[in-house]
Amino acid sequence: TDGVWYEMVNNMVVETCDEKEKKEGATVTEGPLKIRKVSVKDVQFGEVTEVRGETLFLNPDDIRRELLEDKHLLSVDVKIARPGESTRIIPVKDILAPAVKVDGPGCVFPGFIGNPARTIAGRGTTAFLEGVAVVTSGRLVNFQEGLIDMTGPGAEYSIFSRLVNVVLVLEPVEGLGKHEHERVVREAGVKAAAFIGKAAATAEYSEETVYANETIPEIHSKYPDLPKVVYVRQVLAQGLLHDNFLYGLNAREGAIPLYMQATELFDGAIVSGNCAAPCHKHTTYHHQKDPISEDLLAEHGKSLAFLGIIAQPVRTAFSEKERNSFQVLKIAKSLGADGAIIAEDGGGNPECDLMLTASILEQAGIKTVIVTDEYAGGDGASPGLADISPYADAVVTNGNGNERVVLPPMEKVIGHLETIEVITGGHSGSLLKDGSINMEIAGIMGSTNELGMENLSTRAI
Q1: Cα(36)–Cα(59) distance, integer angstroms
Q2: Which residues contact residue 135 at a Cβ distance below 8 angstroms, ignoring those fewer than 6 apart?
Q3: Tens digit of pLDDT for each residue in 236-285?
Q4: Would you give the end-to-end CA distance of the chain in angstroms?
Q5: Most buried pick, 11, 30, 89, 315, via CB within 10 A?
Q6: Rounded (5°) CA angle 453-455-461
Q7: pLDDT digits (tens, 9 = 90+) for 394-442
Q8: Which residues are catalytic?
Q9: Which of 123, 453, 80 is nearest to 286 (CA)?
């Protein structure tokens, strides 16, 4: 009544984000983030979206109803792909971790859900449905979309083959341009991940981790003898469907480095709208589950003092790359950093930013490690990076996207198999007569992920 509405989750009343924000007034700017993980081993369709035991039940009609509020969507089909099944998903646009803000300010995915002007993410309690991902698929938007195999050799290259994937096959209305098509499927994925994630609000959780969100003065005071480390995280902001979103704002519009705490990532403060090559594209799932942040937080107060994240937009013009690299230096020095880790986002053009920033930091006395992948040709003998610097002398690389693989046919295909002949990693003739695929691993989602979330590495021989 009076414009106040609620939703039922597991027979309990849970306030919507807008109503919660109205009641809370000013946002909470201090305090820890608690991450709760609700273990899910299987997903089934049911009458109510809820978790019972370790099974997530989904009502597909409710999901369709939620997403079809966007009149640019013509249809939504909800599929389930489980580990070990003979299933291929193609083309994959984005992948998201379903989550819910149980208490504290705002919502998950601020800027897409709730009011971004009143939200600082990474506070309160956030619950994840662990072992589940939301995958968006459907008619091709851009050639840089990928593939997930749930079994066989392709599955070995992707962490997503080990998750139960709720696949949304999204078909937009006719006549949409590429940018509007991308927006529609991106926002549908976010809505679905937030909608499904509500099932975690009252479910029993198997694990809880608390992150303190210490201030910079507190960190320097508490850990005076530990090396102070900052994490520079590239965020593609290049236009032409190579963009990410910070609190709902296209990073291209701000295009200046931003200081963040790692807990903001965990709440979905960065959402992928990035159509970079699938092997090294940071999906929204990668942002939410960033392993470098998790590892730095795990070592915080032990072997190092973690100062936080500098999100560095990657633009196209060299003058913009210079400006942002020097802004990273300014922030890193202001924080009192002794060392830095820089993780690349995408490949080719961003390697100029990677080398430039590493060189500037190193020359300023900040020891720097870069994390990347390579395109070194099918035999691995070609130069793997588009740019190099003698200052970039500490490098972690997560595999060669040009490595070739033959994937056997699958019994079931979700999406549009014919797109293999035009997506990154594929080519005309990739789809063989027996249904198998001859391709580069560049087309497999996350196969050479530059956050180190996958199984590959590179070594000199």
Answers
A1: 23
A2: 81, 89, 92, 94, 95, 148, 160, 165, 166, 167, 168
A3: 988 888 889 999 999 988 779 999 999 999 999 999 988 789 999 999 99
A4: 70
A5: 89
A6: 125
A7: 999 999 999 999 999 999 999 999 999 999 999 999 999 999 999 999 9
A8: 275
A9: 453
